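It is worth pausing here to work through a concrete case rather than discussing structure prediction in the abstract. The textbook approach is simple: state the sequence, then state the predicted structure, then interpret. We follow exactly that order.
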Amino acid sequence: MFDPKKVSSWDMCSESTDWWGLDKPTVVAELPASSEHFSTDQMLDCSSANGFAGNLFWAFNDPAFPLAPALPALENFTATRSEVTSFHALLMWLDRLPVSSGSAAANEVVALESRASVAARSLIPTLLESADDQERSAAASL
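Step two, the predicted structure:
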């Protein structure tokens, strides 16, 4: 189990999830799309190599932290690791969760599976439009 007293700083690239004492899948969140310490590619690669379950970059809707610089690295990571980044991989992971039949968690998984493909399809145009808008804004400012 994670012990916050064990560390004085957080760096998903320096140590593995075992070293941190993490016994559940852990997503590294609120990452900057660009950093003076690591490139987006490095953040994705080292967190994955160190056993983290994923990354969440900050922030899709915050103009002070544009996500556009991270998109090429995210697209590359997704394309080269489809065995863990695809929607199918998410469903397979959900199927492996230890839940008892009839439990609230099992019912939520069933409900999610029935709505997920529709929701995922509806998000794709929105994500693409936002990325296009960011690119147009960046080009206009040149």
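Step three, interpretation. The mean pLDDT is 76. Residues 28 and 55 are 5 Å apart (CA to CA).
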